[in-house]
């Protein structure tokens, strides 16, 4: 299938400015990182929790994944030894909330089999494997595609690879940086090359927050773990794309008028009505406020 429009390298906007796909990627990163700061991805306490989450999040919402992770944690199974020891039928019930629970339970089991066979059951040894070699090993596992493999590499192993998801593709296509039929590895290479030499996001102080800034995940052991500067940049860029896609660059009703990247578009994408924009922003702000209240409450509990 051919795309209707391929990126020309030119973006006609105010003043007829011209930008290449790589320049567009860098501009998106600079604008969002300065406005929103770090997003603290991946929300997890251990590398294995990242891996389990990456497998469970396929074709479902993160809310459903959190329920499954909570059950695994409560059962003492959110670790290599726990998955290894848990019978498959019990594991299926523990991850049931994530959907496709039989396939996902089996994928968790298969991951442990490969870990045991090739790395002696040592997760640290596996994650220390050279990037290209480990990526090929992960992709050879049934049910592990490029996005899941790269999530494991970047967030569990801190390898400098970028994770391409549906939000990334949607944003870059609408900003004429990639074609509609662009391949996964093509988009991944574009972002990785474009962001080389970039610096990670500074923390955004509470007093300087834009009122439309989506709520970020609270810091976690994995989100604040030490990693190479380039891996940190890829980490943050992916989190920023997720926030943009969830709150502004919607699939059916994008909010270009309110989007922080709206001024970068050469042409609005089905601009929402003013009333719709206000309604969506109000919903986003209510969710952000509720998240912050819950976080403050949890912090004050004994």
Overview of this structure, please?
The protein is mainly alpha-helical. It is built from 13 helices and no strands. Helix 2 (47-56) runs antiparallel to helix 9 (146-156) and helix 8 (131-139) packs across helix 9. It starts with 20 loop residues before the first helix and ends with a helix.
Order of helices and strands: HHHHHHHHHHHHH
Overall mean pLDDT stands at 86
- In total, the number of domains comes to 1
CATH architecture: Orthogonal Bundle
Strand content: under 5%
Structural class: mainly alpha
Approximate helicity band: 40-55%
Biggest sheet features: none
Low-confidence stretches: 1-6, 10-17, 205-209, 293-302
- Give me the number of helical elements: 13
Overall 3D shape? globular
CATH class assignment: Mainly Alpha
Instruction: Give the strand tally.
Output: 0
- The CATH topology annotation reads as Endonuclease III, domain 1
């Amino acid at each position: 299938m051919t795309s209707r429009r391929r990126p020309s390298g030119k973006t006609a906007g105010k003043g007829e400015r011209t930008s290449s796909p790589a320049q567009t990627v860098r501009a998106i990163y600079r604008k969002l990182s300065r406005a929103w700061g770090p997003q603290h991805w991946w929300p997890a306490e251990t590398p294995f929790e990242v891996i389990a989450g990456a497998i469970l999040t396929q074709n479902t919402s993160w809310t459903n994944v959190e329920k499954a992770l909570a059950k695994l944690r409560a059962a003492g199974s959110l670790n290599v030894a726990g998955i290894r020891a848990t019978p498959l039928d019990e594991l299926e019930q523990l991850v049931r909330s994530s959907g496709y629970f039989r396939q996902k339970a089996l994928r968790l089991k298969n991951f442990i089999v490969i870990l045991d066979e090739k790395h002696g059951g040592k997760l640290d040894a596996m994650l220390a494997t050279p990037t290209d070699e480990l990526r090929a090993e992960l992709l050879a596992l049934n049910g592990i595609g490029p996005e899941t493999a790269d999530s494991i590499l970047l967030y569990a192993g801190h390898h400098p690879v970028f994770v391409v998801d549906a939000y990334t593709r949607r944003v870059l296509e609408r900003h004429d940086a990639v074609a509609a039929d662009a391949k996964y590895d093509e988009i991944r290479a574009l972002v990785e090359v474009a962001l080389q030499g970039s610096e990670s996001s500074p923390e955004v102080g509470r007093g300087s927050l834009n009122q439309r800034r989506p709520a970020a995940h609270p810091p976690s052991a994995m989100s604040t773990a030490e990693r190479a500067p380039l891996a940190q940049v890829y980490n943050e860029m992916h989190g920023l794309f997720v926030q943009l896609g969830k709150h502004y660059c919607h699939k059916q009703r994008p909010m270009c008028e309110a989007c922080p990247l709206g001024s970068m578009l050469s042409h609005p994408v089905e601009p929402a009505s003013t009333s719709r924009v206000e309604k969506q922003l109000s919903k986003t702000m209510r969710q952000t406020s509720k998240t912050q209240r819950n976080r403050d409450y949890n912090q004050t509990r004994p």
